[in-house]
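Figure 2 data, in text form.
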Amino acid sequence: MLAALLGADAAFDAAIAADPGFALAHLGRARVHQLNMEGAQARAKAADALQLAAAASPRERQHIEIIACVIEGQGKKAMTAAEQHLAEYPRDAQVLSLLLGAFGLYAFSGRPDHDAARLAITERYAKDYGDDWWFLTYLGWSKTEAGDLVSGRAVTERGYALKPENAGAAHAVAHALFEQGDGAEGRSFLSAWLPANDRTSFLQGHLAWHLALIAIEEGDADGALDIYEQHIKPANRPYPPLNIYTDTASLLWRLAVAGKTGLEAHWKDVAAYGDGYFPKAGAHFADVHQALVAATTNNDALQTRLAEMAAREADGKLAPGAAAIGLGRGVAAFAAGDHEGAVRILAPLMPELVRIGGSHAQRELWEDTFIVACLRAGQGRQATRLISERLHRRPSKRDLAWSQEAARQ
């Protein structure tokens, strides 16, 4: 699980068969069910683990209770309990992993400082882990996302060298190269890693997504679409549904923003996939991506989802708050060709964008949309500050071209 490799389900099943009373094996299997959006099975296995926990050690009981909270959707409670647990048992990597990553409890908490929180907790326990292949990957990634690109890349590459088949490490390397604007090296790295580790990892599709982003940055929309069709589109992919849905929706949207046409059949496939796994508002990162799909294929579905999100916000259950709803309205205006309306809606949301979680690479989609809306509305100067900030962070051919176009308006 920590290396993002396929096969954890079978390994936990084998552990349960060998020792039916091993509570942590039931809990681990529950977590795999959850990642695969198999909610009923996840809750049943978590219940088994909780029942067996009476005979477990205090550390194991807390471990089980924390992950069971995550499975039950009690993210805030799990986050607090995890922090307390780690103060006593810092090397409980599975609990620490819950807090980390683009889809971790910190990222999806709605807090604007989740990059800093993730870095702080990894640095706090760095001495406890030393040269651990898994930990170094996440320490490096946390540094990279917090803006320390040089140190982040160096630490990530140390972790990668210890276990090159670790898909989590390959993912962190891809992010480091992306943040440094090194498209050529990113393409070389991913083009070698993906075929060498074919069908071994549940991050395989997402790593192909990173490769497609490089193609879009270089102006090769056809190449990006080819990668999508071969490695990312939802048909028969053995990856977690949240990864599949967000990768497919976001890449198609980026292609459309880049001017690629003829994507209708792909949009319909993604819409059908989302209807199956994310039929109602709940996981807000899926919801903001559902807005991309619905704005392109079915505006009625978008309005229904936005209403559901508003109800969740009223109940205090929408972690990013009203900003997530606003993003949906902004992309709807953009898809409808109302670029002035998109600018008006999205402009005040750019500082709030961090609250939806995910990585910089994932959130840039909405920044791109805002920039292009400004340019199409003849308001390029409104996007100048954002483009400048992005170029200050890393070189980008697209951002440079957008900057020049904005300056002419």
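Caption note: The chain has a mean pLDDT of 97.
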